[in-house]
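stuck on this one:
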Amino acid sequence: IITANVSDDVYYVPGWTDIVTISAGENRFAGLKSDGTVVSVENGNNVVYDTSIWNNIVDIAVGDRYTAGL
């Protein structure tokens, strides 16, 4: 997955494979994988959020300061 913001900075996010749904906030991105796990990052800060305990997730939502999984 490659994301770009309005300043045309490009970020490569490793490990984003088998993504079935993406959600994005102002600076956050999350991907729901086909196995029900989630990957989540913050744009521009190289912050990768630990969602390793999330499993069996069926939907995701991202806002300016949160990542949620159902």
